Each structure stands twice: as C-alpha cells, then as structure tokens.
Amino acid sequence: MHSLPSTEPSRRVLLTTGSSDAHTWNLVFLQLFLEEHGHSVLNLGPCVPERLLVDTARMTSPDLVVVSSVNGHGHQDGLRAARALHQDEDTRGIPMVIGGLLGISPEGAEERTAELLAAGYDAVYSDGTEPTALLRHLGRLEAVVEERAEARGACTGRAAA
Q1: Between vectors from CA 10 to CA 155 and to CA 8, what angle results, nearest 5°?
Q2: What is the mean pLDDT of residues 58-75?
C-alpha cells in the first residue's frame, strides 16, 4: 500500500460489516487503505447489528457508509442495513456502498446487485473489485456532502461552514 495520498478532500467514512459476518481482515485493510489516502475512518468491526449501525451513523454523520462482506451473506446483511438506515429520519440521506462476497455462489449476482441498488446503495462492488474504485466513489461525493452540510445549517438556523 505504498501510494501517494489522494488529492481529493478528506471524507468521514463509517466502515462496517453485516450482523452475520465475523471477518475483520477486510475491515482492517479498508481502514488502512482509506486512511492512507487521507480519509477519516470509524471501523465498527465484525458482526455489527443494524441498531448499532444506525445509532453510530446518527451520532457521527459520516459522509459515506461502507459495508464490506466476506462470509457470502453480504446481500442479506446489506439489505437489512439499508432498510434500517433508510427507516431512520436522521440517517436516510447518508450515501452507502457495499462490496465483497455478497452471495455464496455466482448465480444470481446480477439480481443481488439490482436488489441492493434498489434498497438504496449508491454502488455495489463485486468480490475482487480494486479498492481504488472506492476512492473514486469518495471523490465524487463532494456535491452530496455539500448538500448535506447546507441542509444541516438550515435545520440549525446557521450557515454551513
């Protein structure tokens, strides 16, 4: 991981895995990779219940939620996470991406991807996608982040910084 830091603005990333996924190496790799490129990462670790994800997102207001899966149940866990985040008024507008091993077999991959996108994910990265795809996604978040900051300012009666 010896690359130059990104020239893109730093983003706050909430990194998680699904409630059924006990793997950590993927989370550690992504955290180090994103931090190396100048982003701030809060890593919730393995087996994250949806309530913890929503509560943490509400408290930290991240620029992006990243769900990483290794156990092959990312599709199911990801759908539950998306529903939980979208049902909460304070977290429904937070951009989300998911990636990794989203199913236990290659059959149905297109349907899983479509279902995750319909559930609210901004991007779905299949197993084997280069992590630079996540950096590109973070680089495109500027307009979304600015809109959220303006909305927060309007809600509090102050101008966004």
Answers
A1: 115
A2: 96
